[in-house]
Amino acid sequence: MAVAMSLSFGLLSSSVLLPEAHALSFTRPSRSASASPLRMVRTVISCKVSESDKGTRKIRGIMKPRDVTPEMAALVGAQQISRTQALKLIWAYIKANNLQDPEDKRTIICDEKLKKIFEERDRVGMLEVARLISPHFLKTEV
């Protein structure tokens, strides 16, 4: 029986077979309701819990609040803000004032507040927004 099962699952090659194993059937096991399918089970041998303190982690990169120019502060309503939060507020302003081009939603039609941030341009592509707000985040010395 064990040889037949190993043959049906391809565990033994024909060169290793016993002579009486050639007479066995090479059919797949039935998938009826009574027969349960075989499953591979992975056993956890050891596990390591990381001991990082999330509260003491230093905020860096685009999540770190930075000082912004007066033009940006007038639009977002804060003197210090992170890049991600600024982008969210700019997009909320664009959608609230219906400043997307109706024919091409990827294009923003700038009003006076946005022109101050977007280099006095009348139209800006949505992929340019992150690049254009970059100069408005002031570098602070450490």
TrEMBL record:
Domain of life of the organism encoding this protein: Eukaryota
UniProt name for this protein: DM2 domain-containing protein
CDD domains named among the record's database cross-references: SWIB-MDM2_like
Xref: PROSITE patterns: SWIB_MDM2
Residues of the DM2 domain: 61-139
Keyword Signal in record: yes
Entry keywords, A to Z: Signal
Family matches, as PANTHER family: SWI/SNF-RELATED MATRIX-ASSOCIATED ACTIN-DEPENDENT REGULATOR OF CHROMATIN SUBFAMILY D (PTHR13844)
Signal peptide span: 1-23
